[in-house]
Amino acid sequence: MSTNKKELRIQYKNFRKELPLDVAEDKSLAIANNLIELPIWNKTYFHVFLPIEEQKEVNTEYILHLLSGKDKEIVVSKSDFETRDMTHFLLTDNTKIKKNEYNIPEPVNGLPVAAEMIEVVFVPLLAFDLVGNRVGYGKGFYDKFLAACKPETIKIGLSFFEAENLIEDVFELDIKLNYCVTPEKVYTF
């Protein structure tokens, strides 16, 4: 198995592609159920990514239901592909969601939320390792966003697959996860 980001990216995109839709749904639900064990439920502001269906990302709808049921403030983002910045908005019943040119569902409008206010971030990823490093799509959006959050913000990766031993080409600026949740288990870093 390869352990550099570029090869892992290719490998895990293929793993995902081969996952039947119903299996991906079951795994997404299992991930949401495993989140209940985490010591995060005293927090208020939770940032959730809205999945790119075409990339077969973890379906976060189950997490949205969980957060709504616990009366949490849910924050979603809009990405600027020129600056690699993300702007964050409160998800309310009035928030209009529309897919951008990359098929990422995004809020059209809404109440802005500063990154410093966000206490828990669910982080999309392709692969992760046993020490909390992750491989994303390589655009750097989340590294930039997580760097703008407070250091104590809890970062939780969501993955259909289990951990790699070690991702070798990690940069100093890469921000590690506190947890990664898979359908099988919760990794704590």
Structure description:
By secondary structure, the chain is an alpha/beta fold. The protein has a single domain (5-188), classed as NagB/RpiA/CoA transferase-like (Rossmann fold, 3-Layer(aba) Sandwich), CATH 3.40.50. It is 24% helix and 24% strand. It contains four helices and twelve strands; from the N terminus they run H-H-E-H-E-E-E-E-E-E-E-E-H-E-E-E. Strands 6-3-2-1-7-10-11-12 form an eight-stranded mixed β-sheet, sandwiched between helices. A two-stranded antiparallel ribbon has the order 4-5. Strands 8-9 form a two-stranded antiparallel sheet. The longest helix is centred in the first third of the chain and has 15 residues, at 21-35. It starts with a helix and ends with a strand. The relative contact order is 0.19. It is an enzyme of class 6 (ligase). Belongs to the 5-formyltetrahydrofolate cyclo-ligase family. It catalyses: (6S)-5-formyl-5,6,7,8-tetrahydrofolate + ATP = (6R)-5,10-methenyltetrahydrofolate + ADP + phosphate.
